[in-house]
Amino acid sequence: MVFNVKDFGATGDGINKDTDAFKKAISECQKNGGGTLYIPAGIYLTGPIHLKSNITLYIENGAVLKFSQDIDDYPTVYTRWEGEEAEVYSPLIYGEDIENIAVTGFGTIDGQGMLWWNLLRKKELRYPRPRGISFYRSRNITIDGIRIINSPSWTVNPIECENITVNNIKIQNPYDSPNTDGINPESCRGVRISNCYIDVGDDCVTLKSGTEDCRERIPCENITVTNCIMAHGHGGVVIGSEMSGGVRNVVISNCIFEGTDRGIRIKTRRGRGGIVEDIRVSNIVMKNVICPFAFYMYYNCGKGGQEKRVWDKSAYPVDETTPVVRRIYVSDVTVRQARAAAGFLYGLTEMPIEDVVFSNVVIDMADNPEPEIPAMISFLEPMAKKGFILNTVKNARFLNVSVNRQDGTAFEFENCENIELYRCSSDGEKDYSKFISKKNVKGIITE
Length: 447
Description:
Blueprint: E1 2-4, E2 13-17, H1 19-31, E3 35-39, E4 42-46, E5 49-50, E6 55-59, E7 63-67, E8 76-81, E9 84-89, E10 93-96, E11 99-105, E12 108-110, H2 114-122, E13 133-136, E14 139-144, E15 147-149, E16 162-167, E17 170-172, E18 189-194, E19 197-200, E20 205-207, E21 220-226, E22 229-232, E23 235-240, E24 247-258, E25 262-267, E26 275-287, E27 291-296, H3 308-311, E28 324-338, E29 341-346, E30 353-365, E31 386-391, E32 393-404, E33 411-414, E34 417-422, E35 436-439, E36 442-446
Parallel strand pairs: 1-3, 2-4, 3-6, 4-7, 5-10, 6-11, 7-12, 10-13, 11-14, 12-15, 14-16, 15-17, 16-18, 17-19, 18-21, 19-22, 20-23, 21-24, 22-24, 23-25, 24-26, 25-27, 26-28, 27-29, 28-30, 29-31, 30-32, 31-33, 32-34, 33-35, 34-36
Antiparallel strand pairs: 8-9
């Protein structure tokens, strides 16, 4: 059945609040076992919309859901926030313990996030900001076709959900808007992200699984990201730093990153625990990025990021709080105008990053870039036009990899073990002695 929100009192004039009309329409859908809540063209000023099982929210072309800037319109819900359970202001579109949900159409969701960004900057928020679309402990979710702008914080954030399709959506948040990530599956299973355009004020797509403070360690697994365009943002596709439940079985393919600070980024630190493994990246084009590949285990941002164990290079005992990063395969990637470094991989002294392959990768550095930091590590200095930098990495292979126009060596290895390079080059030079530097390396093969 189809339920038109205007039949329940919505005006769609952008002036009068239509919150009660949405509640009535959803209640009627629920009484009938589900259906489609139809939003015709118009501007609908509303508070949060809480969906129920078996409901499709269809936003027609020309329809705009404009979310209220009255904080009193936002009840709190208890869910996850940045990796741990917390009471937060309700997301704009929300559902908990529901199934068979869709948010579709060709209309627009406008979060009017400026109010929330300003309150955050002034430190005047009682609870964390609303997210755009967030479902908690739910399954069978489809988000398709819509445009989402000005999200107060993370834009699409399913948490502990299963069987999720996000297709053909457009996300646009100002580049300077704080923590307005694009699509962040968190402790989810079976996620398909495809054909999306994402231009945001933080990471474009991020895979997370909670921090060490979560009551349950639930992995984020079986994820595909394909045919997407990422513009600006701090990272194209990012794993972590909230990864205590682990992230595994991820395929990233056929994407374009333009102007993202980093391309593919994996970030974690001591205390988090969790395993990142079986990540495959292929057919990617990047342009104007600080660092195309940044995999590191000394991430220093957020709660606890300044503790000694985060930055200390001494070896610590290996236990359940030690993160693991392994089995990452990157192939068929073209990068133009990389600024700080071609790649930056930095493992823990007691837990190297393991089993990494780069195959058929070409990276050209930018002309005269300003020094920047390739990874958020407290002891790292800004750099420009460096090649691949690997520290504390075990079992790394470079097959037909070319780094061009860098300053200094194309490949720098320190505290590494079992390094192999086949048919690699730098500005056409194939004599490895001229573009490789190594220190404390056990086992290196070049052909």
